[in-house]
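Translate sequence into structure tokens.
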Amino acid sequence: MIDQSLVQSGFDIEVLLSARYLSYALLAQVEAGQLPLELDVVDANAGLDAHITIHPPTDYRRLYAPEPTAVLPRAVDGSFATELVLGDPDGANLQLSVVTDIVDNLSGQRRDDVTIGLMLAIGLTADVDERGFESNHRLSISLVKLDPLTQLALAFAGLPLDQVTAQIKAQLDRTVAFGVADGQAVQRAVLRSHDGDAQHQPAFGVYINLALKLGAEATAFVPDRGDVAAAVNFLESGRDVAFATPASLFARLGDDFSARMAEEDPVGSGTFRHPLREVPGDPTSKEIGTLTSVTIGPEPGPNGVGTTGRLVIDIAGEYSIDLLPDPSFHLYIKLRPVIDANGLLTWDVESSVDVDLLGSLLAVLVIVIGTVLAGPGVGATLFLLLLGADLIVDAVASAAVADRLDQLADASFLDALPHRVTVATRRWDPLYVTQHQVVGALDRFDINALGLAFDGAAVLDKTPAPVTHAVIRDEERDITGAVCGLRYRVRDLAAIAAELTAIAPGTDRLPFVAVDPTTDIRGETNLVALNLDQVHDRIDTRRLIAPILCVPERIHLENHTIRQLLVLTKRERDELHDALIDEFRTRAAARISADQGVNLAQEQTERLRTELGREPTPPEVDDAVNAHISMLVDDEQVAYEAGGFPADLTEAIAEVLRLDLVPHEFATLQGDGVLAIAGKEIIRMRRGTVYYRDRPDFYFADNLLALPRYPVPYAPAI
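Result follows.
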């Protein structure tokens, strides 16, 4: 196991990877159909026309059965062997040796089982946001040269070295996804190489600083830290991945969580509070308490001796009631690593509330967890753990947080665990993507006073991730009129048509039916139909976003009773809202630029000349003019949202409404976790009647009976 005393870089996270791990990253590309094993090396000017077949190795492990219709070349022992290279004058840091068959199409000569040594340069790249933080990390793989033995073999065969190298480089060079933080933002990630010693093998080191808040202010982040030169190799022989954090990370994590749950009150004052809200994340909703602190660390053992191996998130606060003093509480979220027979890491999640009064305060638990999830920067891994552990027990709350899964910006410490690193992503199916991963098969996971640590062996696996923009558009009914299936709108269905028929060893695709637009009542071209069994199968295996939050828009009333509800998913409602605002801003900016552009350019030139004490450059003037136009557009947008916007939004919604069911049908789907109706409660009468009731409050504009009526069947105003 890892010697945690060797964690010395000062970064938040240290990850060490073996050369074999890198070969698995390339093999995952093969499994995803993104790295071809058949290469044509052709250069007419050089008289070169050859075909190279690359053989996969015999000994790599998958945790899934490969697609039987996907055929790979014959497996050969020793192919895809890797070795770290240190001090190469041309910049290569990894040698990849592949066993190949080479056919010279001009001479007809064939050579089988020829080993080609590829000298590669491996680097780490990322997208950088406006804060200077990094996300969507990738390994850059570039062929530097062929190794000396391969060069000699090519010369002996009479093949031109430069042209063969260039042709292979053109087909091999690539950037490979490297999900060091599940694609989310970190402050910095740095790559370096380590030599080996008697106990440790040569390794690539990846050193990561999380984007951790130091205070509630938008720019208050912990300063960059760590020295990669001080890092020490702790990857033991026979292991492919090793991970560790310093003990100092625990305190920084607690401060970060606390800072992210603050509200500026009043806005613009620079003063922050930590209120508990009736509607988490909505500063206009009723305040029902206060959060006082968040601490994160290993759970102490019995009588304070040692640790239990669990990680504890302790959220403390006060709950406002009509008694004095307000009772305090501690919400404990306890995470215990669980390693299965394959060495795969999962988490056992428990929660408890310690309160200073008798009685149940389960509502506080739900509210606090909702508040945690409502804040930006709570990583996807923690979000999924809490949601999967049913700690968010209300269906509408579950749907609300599920709807914002793709909005989680900054990585949590759990997102940066390298037990599953995505190195390729394919959209084999319209409703989910498949993340092809190099997984660490672990023996143990230590959580102690020194930090977190584990190591393991590499293995290939894959995991699904639902497409968040897929929304329920309509229902399908059988001959009896019962709901038998659902139609989902997939926004980019036409663009992924080729992906939906592609085949590779790692293909992951479930049954679906692409709806023929000529048979659809609206002629929509982006619909996918699933029967209810298929819907439930996909939800159970996390291949479909669920529950999907729906907003009531119209009611069908008979004899003073709501017989049907016409709803729109909240995601699509938000899309329509944003599209209208974007269109308005584009039009307004174009009009202001046409009407005032010349005068604004003169005004901003004079202002900059005075402020800078010199003649401003054209880009400086353009930036200043655009900023002023944006400010003017902001003012017009406020007026638009208070004036014509509500009617425009109502009209846009009316054009896309389709999903209408009777209340008991909605309630059945909500009970099955398929959808949830926003702001409403399901009432089930003893005689079997099911209906939705407005949640009790003093705001009546969103009540069901206040919604517009519609006749059945609904006909859009288009």
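Note: The first strand starts at residue 13 and ends at 17.
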